[in-house]
Amino acid sequence: MATVNPTKGESTRERIIESAYGMARREGLEGLTIGSLAAEVGMSKSGVFAHFGSLEDLQLALLDSGARRFVEHVFTPALKQPRGLKRLASVVEAWFGWVHFNGGSCVLLGAVSEYDSREGVLHDAVLRQQTEWRRALAKSATLAVETGELGAATDVEQLAFEIYSVVLGMNHDAGLFGYEAARQRAERAFARLVGSYGP
Amino acid sequence: MATVNPTKGESTRERIIESAYGMARREGLEGLTIGSLAAEVGMSKSGVFAHFGSLEDLQLALLDSGARRFVEHVFTPALKQPRGLKRLASVVEAWFGWVHFNGGSCVLLGAVSEYDSREGVLHDAVLRQQTEWRRALAKSATLAVETGELGAATDVEQLAFEIYSVVLGMNHDAGLFGYEAARQRAERAFARLVGSYGP
DNA sequence: TAAAAGAACGAACGGTCGTGCTATTTTTAA
DNA sequence: TTAAAAATAGCACGACCGTTCGTTCTTTTA
Questions:
Q1: Any residues with CB less than 8 A from the CB of B59 and at least 6 apart, and which?
Q2: pLDDT of A124 strictly over 80
Q3: Which of A116, A128, A156, A164 is the best substitution to test chain B (most B C-beta atoms within 10 A)?
Q4: Contact between B151 and A139 (Cβ < 8 Å)
Q5: Does the pTM of the predicted model rise above 0.90?
Q6: Do A165 and B169 touch (CB under 8 A)?
């Protein structure tokens, strides 16, 4: 019972974030403005503003919220799979689905290219996220090595990089050329990867 | 003799683009403003503005200029290599180097995530670029199949996607975690790729 | 050297930006 | 039901946005 009895402020704050998330998917975190956001949720600028205290804090909240959804969508369901290749594949498949779930463009990945060569709290948050998920991916790979489904000599960090690359490739192609074709390419690439790292 | 006797206007236009390119590398094409650009080149806003007619045209010019550099840096030198795997490898290596050449963040790739889910001439230009380079990459792969250095059954479009993914992975990691480590990962990934597609 | 063309400036425009303030309304708690 | 607290609106601000316009200075051409 985490979200029971949400106060009015909390629920509208959630509504704002929801709306901002859709907007950021089209315009990026940087393209977000309080004015247009207020118009979309049907509030005044100052009304929206008061919930966050600053635009940067709103962006930060958005990043957090996105991260929560991401983990829920990609990592959590995989826990139902047995450790090893099954679980790793589940993560990757869900990751592919995540791109589609977000209409072909991902706020979190967009934030990487917006903030990777900048300083500030948003950069720090993005870096933390990416580091964490790369680590989680490598961990999943490690389990698949331990079950013997991947070769014992597997460099799991390298494999995590290569899987992540496929995700980036899919994200890239989905945005430019369409989701379906991109997903097929990505599926095949991942299958190849698993095959080439096999025992 | 293309750039001989450049008129004054042409040369300052070049200077502006040069400066804008560096700025766009930090802030993205979207983050570019005529005011800050004018300040950096030491001109008035209107003086800068007059060279392009609109901000969008400036961004478009920047995209064109970047494309020219990119081709010059990545594709042109590879022509000195014999057709086949040598040339393909040369393209990929130069591509890796291109990321470093641009200080770890590439304007052209940045433009993809800025404009992939938008409409307009900038989106169109980005799409044209990416389509062209993917095609060129696939073509390079085709030659390597014809020389017998890659398997006859190779799906060159799939291979092009996978190579491109590695480039994206490298770009991602270079921006967040540093160039050197990213390049090593990318090198190994490409080597694996070539190996797994071998004859 | 004179005339025409081009380049750059400075000021101003209407907008929008994020952010403070002070009211007013609505929700919550006693 | 009433008082306190929270949520929202309204307005104004200074800054900056892209763009336009008329003017001035510099370069090119004849």
A1: B29, B32, B122
A2: yes
A3: A116
A4: no
A5: yes
A6: yes
